[in-house]
Amino acid sequence: MIIHTLPAGPIETNGFLLTDAARGEAVLIDAPGGIWAFVEPILIREKCRLTELWLTHGHWDHIQDAAKVVRASGAKVRGHLADRTFFDTPEIMSAFLSSRITLEKIAIDHWVAQGDRFEALGRSVEVRHVPGHCPGNVLFYFADECAAFVGDALFAGSVGRTDLPGGSREQLLAAIRAQIYTMPDATTVYPGHGPSTSVGVEKRSNPYVRG
């Protein structure tokens, strides 16, 4: 499995394209604005078909191009039910956006929940619910690959903001300790913004939440 990190959109939100050329399949995690222009050439080059789109949460910068990606690829979409309002009525986020940014409703094909396990790209994936930044933030954990895609829960040296609707600092810090810091220290953490880090590094040095 190859992990392509693709920052896109007005605030450089990370989309992650996971490809397996041997299987001819790919999965996209989050869909910031303009992401398809980066995704499509990789799919062509690696002869892969995008089968699924996983949304770590429903904030605008992570779902801006979700509907476009689905139209272009036919990918099935996964997301958490607690963020259904964002997926169904993204215009509620308009107060935080430039008038030039438009959002489309995105239909969720499969609702995910804490502890769900399923197979993708021939590998086992575990879902962990990490609320606090927003109600429906989840991470997707590939234990065999030592990789976790955590949305905006945790960053390198920081944590997600909690001053938006549905946010809670206490809930976020508790969820990080329970759902992220319980993974092996060697696990690579792929956040929604900025560089990757590791569970061990953040447990030792994150100034907002120590392990």
TrEMBL record:
Residue limits of the Metallo-beta-lactamase domain? 12-193
Q: Which Pfam families match?
A: Lactamase_B
Q: Does the keyword Zinc apply?
A: yes
Work out whether the entry's keyword set contains Metal-binding. Answer: yes
Q: Where is this region: Disordered?
A: 192-211
Query: What Gene Ontology molecular-function terms does this entry list?
Result: hydrolase activity; metal ion binding
Q: Which InterPro entries does this chain map to?
A: MBL_Glyoxalase_II, Metallo-B-lactamas, RibonucZ/Hydroxyglut_hydro
Keywords, in A-Z order: Hydrolase, Metal-binding, Zinc
Cofactor names from the entry are: Zn(2+)
Q: Which domain of life is it from?
A: Bacteria
Which PANTHER family does the record associate with it? HYDROXYACYLGLUTATHIONE HYDROLASE GLOC (PTHR46233:SF3)
> What is the protein's given name?
MBL fold metallo-hydrolase
| Species | Rariglobus hedericola
